[in-house]
Amino acid sequence: MNLDSKSEFEKFTKEVEELRDIWNSYQELLLSYKASEEEVKRKNEELKEANETKDILFSIISHDLRSPFQGLLGISNYLLDEFNSLTNDEIKELIQSLNDGLKNQYKFLDDLLNWSRLQSGKLQVERSDFNLFELVEKVKELFINNLNAKKILFVNNLRREKIINADEDLIYILIRNLISNSIKFTNENGKVEVNSISFEDFVQISISDNGVGIKQENIDKIFKVENHFTTRGTHNEKGNGFGLALCKEIVLKHNGKIWLKSEFGKGTTFFFTIPHKIEL
Q: What's the per-residue H, E or C state across 93-107?
């Protein structure tokens, strides 16, 4: 190879290297652009979801939070205006209706606030070891009047020494909502049962009833707050359509899963898992 040929070859090689560098830079720029495009798309989806959530909340607050108070105000006004003409039994019945209505609204507001905090990240999981059997017994005592009124047998099959590591306050809210739901849809002389199975990496807890069950077409609706799905209980108990959506958020915050099995007319079982170790 003569000098001119060598010089030309070196020039050609240098040009190839420059082209390779340009191509690599172009590839990096293209990947960066795609990543940015995906990030913008993701942010837009998050913004869209946030706006939809905001609209749902406004709808719930404007209707479901306000409407029941109209009935409660009606009862209180009637009680005030007709107090002297009412019997003691009538007064007691009206006061009981007020008390039940206010309890329902308080629970709804509490669920709404907790769900909002979980959504916004303001409510964080604070893990600790606690006795799950005792927590379920605590929830049972909360609903003892409801259980007695319907003559429902409540069976806590958890081991008395059953310890799990999770956020005790959030798990209390979760189990409270699931047990409340089971009682609501169980007929008189029915049964509500709590069980658990321990696996290597997680514990699976189930809450089952032999109540009215859920129609197949409604199963996918109940965990989604946007559907705001609610039906009356066997004693005409009201729901707020928010409790199960909150349950899902709590389980997700624990990196667990929640699902259900139901047969219409025969009962429902809710399952959820809590990993032994939670990566936050």
A: HHHHHHHHHHHHHHH
End-to-end CA distance of the chain: 66
- State the CATH architecture for 128-280: 2-Layer Sandwich (3.30)
Do the beta carbons of residue 207 and residue 270 sit within 8 Å?
Answer: yes
Q: Which two tokens stand for residue 221?
A: 């609706």
CA 153/CA 134 separation, integer angstroms: 18
- For 119, residues 6+ apart whose C-beta sits below 8 A from its C-beta are 53, 249
Angle at which helices 88-120 and 168-184 cross, to 10°: 130
Q: What is the pLDDT of residues 79-127, one digit of tens each?
A: 888 888 889 888 888 888 888 778 877 777 777 777 777 777 777 788 9
What are the E-state strand segments in 54-147? Answer: 128-131
Largest CA distance in the chain: 123
Q: How far, in Å, CA of 76 to CA of 69, rounded? A: 10
Is pTM, for the whole model, over 0.85?
A: no
Domain borders along the chain are 128-280
Q: Are 115 and 249 in contact (CB under 8 A)?
A: yes
CA dihedral sign, ordered 130, 131, 132, 136: negative
The tokens for 232 are 């009356």
Handedness of CA 82, 87, 92, 97 (dihedral sign): negative
